[in-house]
Amino acid sequence: MKNVALITGADRGLGLALTAGLISKGWKVFAGQYMPEWPELAELSAKYPSIEMIPLDVGSDESMRHSAQMVSGLTDHLDLLINNAGVTSPAMYRDIRESQDYTEMCRLYNINALGPLRTVEAFLPLLESSPVKRLCFISSEAGSINACDRQSWYGYCMSKAALNMEVKILFNRLRPQGYTFRLYHPGWLRSYMGGTKNTEADLEPRDAAALALAYFLRERAADTNNRRIDENRLVLRDWRGREMPW
Ligand SMILES: NC(=O)c1ccc[n+]([C@@H]2O[C@H](COP(=O)([O-])OP(=O)(O)OC[C@H]3O[C@@H](n4cnc5c(N)ncnc54)[C@H](OP(=O)(O)O)[C@@H]3O)[C@@H](O)[C@H]2O)c1
After folding, report:
1. 234 neighbors 168 (Cβ within 8 angstroms)
2. Ligand 1 pocket by C-beta < 6 Å: which residues?
């Protein structure tokens, strides 16, 4: 039986590269499509029948319900869930002495923090049937409270810190039932978070995806002592393999 994954926010950036990376390793991928007008995912899926595009807005209960129904009709299990979809906004740069955009902050919270929770809830029945049961979350250094030296970016940083807490609670509940967790900062990416491709950042999405997948797919037994993954201790790890402070 093929390994089966679901990735949210797979239209471009890291999500698209993770989709391509898993396909090259022989996985079947349900790729969450949020931007039907953006052609890259459709082009990739035309090349690889193992990609199934699933319309999915992680910020919407209704969209989540529909996509879970659709995926349940196409597979009886999921081995790997990668919660990747995320957004930021230019409004996050506002200083505390400027008026804050609370509506925009709520949008970010709904997608970045509640989106992964909605996704886990919706797809848990399919993960239950897998012997692998791996839950991956693309967080950010921006969600680390101890590492924070920013003086703005409230909505984005707070949404990722909330995601980290959410993953801890999920870990407490689901780890005893055999689920394994990867909470991850993927590095500064040449992706589209600002609306256009960032050409100044450190990593191309393809390289970032290769690093992420090496960590997401690695089994405990395959680890060296230095980079040991202790499945019973939740860690926030970055793309260089370093553990980050909470
Ligand atoms: N870029 C970085 O340097 C960086 C650093 C640390 C962590 N991250 C995290 O990495 C993840 C991937 O980001 P990226 O850099 O690859 O950004 P990206 O290129 O913008 O890709 C994210 C994808 O998710 C989509 N999306 C937005 N709202 C969605 C929703 N409600 N439901 C489903 N999909 C939605 C985006 O569509 P739109 O383009 O229409 O919004 C986009 O296609 C995010 O969680 C981000 O927070 C990024």
Report:
1. yes
2. 8-9, 11-15, 32, 34-35, 56-59, 84-87, 111, 138, 140, 185-186, 188-189, 191-193, 201
